[in-house]
Amino acid sequence: MQIMVQSDKAKVQLEIDAQADWTSCLITGLVAAAPCFLEAFMKCIQGGDGGSTGFKPGDRERCE
Amino acid sequence: MPLTKQQMLQIMLENPDVDLVYNDHDTTLGTFHVQTSKRITHHDLRLPEDVDPTKCTIRKAPPFHTLELQRVHIGHINTFNECQDEPIKLGTQIQPQGAPWVGTAGCPVSWTDLNMERHWGILSNWHVFCGGRYDVGHPQHQPTDDRPACAHLFAATPVDAAKPNNTDAAIADALVDGFHSIDWSILDIGRLNPTISRAAVGGYYRKVGRTTGLTHARCTAINVTARIGYGDFEAIFIEQDLFEDVEGSFSAPGDSGSTIVCDCNGGPSSLLFAGGGNQTLGNPIQLVADKLNLRFDP
What we know:
The structure holds 2 protein chains of 2 kinds.
Chain A: E1 2-6, E2 11-15, H1 22-32, H2 37-45
Antiparallel strand pairs in A: 1-2
Helix pairs in contact in A: 1-2
Chain B: H1 5-14, E1 18-23, E2 32-36, E3 56-60, E4 64-66, E5 69-70, E6 88-90, E7 92-96, E8 101-105, E9 107-112, E10 118-124, H2 126-129, E11 139-141, E12 149-157, E13 169-173, E14 175-176, E15 179-180, E16 182-186, E17 204-209, E18 213-229, E19 234-246, E20 259-262, E21 268-276, E22 279-284, H3 285-292, E23 294-295
Parallel strand pairs in B: 2-3, 4-18, 6-16
Antiparallel strand pairs in B: 1-2, 1-18, 4-21, 5-8, 7-8, 7-11, 9-10, 9-23, 10-13, 11-12, 12-13, 14-15, 17-18, 17-20, 18-19, 19-22, 20-21, 21-22
């Protein structure tokens, strides 16, 4: 899911994890506190919380 | 007054022939049910002194046992027990390396470890992934161990014969060579609604397992106390969900580990782990999720 964020200085398009839990991510961000709030919140909302690289389904053929 | 958890446990402990105890759905009546595979009467039953025996109904039904499938019985091949290329859809067969049994890889789950690292993997039973034989890290293979490992045992809630249990669960991390071997879906069901739906008496449910595939059931009781045969030992379970067949068997040996999903909203309700006759038992999935810190979305 893509959203557009616009301020008086910039306009940014972000890719958002459709399954992201906004409330949980907001708490994640608040725990991180300023100045890391935005970074932690964005990492979480984009599906990359906890420093992980995300869910990456493989495509290997296993049955031959 | 309905039976308390302690009273149900006491009935189970003092009556070795009793397999199941649960309150009537209408708890205002104070009636309860005792199930046994033996010929016993009210006269044989030992009830706590503060329990009214006239409120008890005795039912006769087969005993409960776990539903893993011994490897020697594997024969008929269907979609649910054949090999799956990646990403592997769940509801399909899985086997710990070297185990003489197979079960079902229930559903995809995610969790965060103590180092705050996210993991993605498979939910099944302790007696499928581990069975008291295997340690953390043990490889899990789909459909059998002549194919490459698709996950490794990460954690479990072991079953204890010496005290009441309420979960028989295990999770395996599906990260293999930098990629996750699984699809975020169950064969024939698709993607789960990540919101847990507690089992409700009278509600309709579905599951996909390696033996019977996609089948349907109705929930007939919750908060059930049950005696389960594990082959070489017996264990008592409390707070369990009870389901009865709708149009054919809901479960059969090999279906252990399946996720029971609510028809109401497609959310996970129970973790299938035992059955007998036309009945199937599941651990309330909220209990499993709480113990293993699970989420049902990626």
